[in-house]
Specification:
By secondary structure, this protein is α/β, with parallel strands linked by helices. It has a single domain, classed as Ribonuclease H-like superfamily/Ribonuclease H (Nucleotidyltransferase, domain 5). It has 8 helices and 6 strands. The protein has a 6-stranded mixed sheet. The longest helix is centred in the C-terminal third of the chain and has 23 residues. The mean pLDDT is about 95.
């Protein structure tokens, strides 16, 4: 891939599941249709966080590699004051879920990026953003799922896909790991070093810990940008 002269955006999202108990009985029964015991019931409910139809956006991290600046768009009440990192040119901007999603698409439209960089974005972040936009009736300014799983590479550098050579396996050389693991093995500062991880975001959000989530989201895009710099010259 030739990335010379391209305008590059690293992005990453954080999401939280809906309150399962607030669904009507018909919906709960449908979602638990194949849950046969308490363990499978819990696993099924826990997995709902990954669907845009049963969860919501709480943060979108964006880092413009070309300009070396970025923002964390945080789903928090307007007027919420968050302190951005003092050593990075990353702003924290608060608003409703609809507002942060609209701001994301406006930024993409304004900057006309040539290349998007994610970690597992083809499988999660990109389809999530497209479908969540559909649900909230917000028009995307770019089709992040254009092409096929074999042809998207001309506009999207998915670091996890690159590290597994586009076909991961449960074991062996093409096994996939999480971002924290890759960062640790490649001597890159991990976003989880501060004690926050993706599975804790839901509880943090319910507790109103917007600062911790924003800091974690900022750490994610910084780590992914560093990992991209490390990987891009090899593949």
């Amino acid at each position: 891939m030739n990335i010379e002269g391209k305008k590059i955006l690293v992005f990453d999202i954080e999401v939280v599941a809906d309150n399962f108990e607030e669904y009507d009985e018909r919906t709960r029964d449908y979602l638990l249709k194949y849950a046969t015991d308490e363990v499978s019931r819990k696993n099924t409910i826990d997995s709902l966080v990954f669907s845009p139809f049963t969860s919501m956006l709480v943060a979108i991290g964006m880092l413009d590699v070309t300009k070396n600046n970025g923002a964390v768009l945080m789903n928090a009440p307007e007027g919420t004051y968050l302190i951005p990192p003092d050593d990075k040119d990353i702003k924290y901007i608060c608003g409703s879920e609809e507002k942060i999603l609209e701001d994301f698409w406006k930024k993409i439209d304004k900057e006309k990026y040539d290349l998007f960089v994610t970690f597992n974005g083809r499988e999660f972040d990109c389809p999530y953003l497209m479908l969540r936009s559909l649900i909230l009736d917000i028009k995307p300014t770019y089709n992040l799922m254009s092409g096929s799983d074999f042809t998207f590479r001309n506009y999207h550098f998915d670091i996890l896909k690159e590290l597994t050579f586009f076909k991961h396996s449960p074991t062996g050389a093409r096994r996939k790991y999480n971002l924290d693991f890759y960062c640790n093995k490649l001597n890159i500062d991990s976003p989880k070093a501060g004690g926050v991880s993706g599975d804790k975001v839901g509880n943090l959000y319910k507790a109103g810990e917007y600062q911790k989530i924003a800091d974690y989201a900022a750490g994610d895009i910084i780590a992914e940008a560093a990992l991209f710099e490390r990987v891009k010259n090899f593949f």
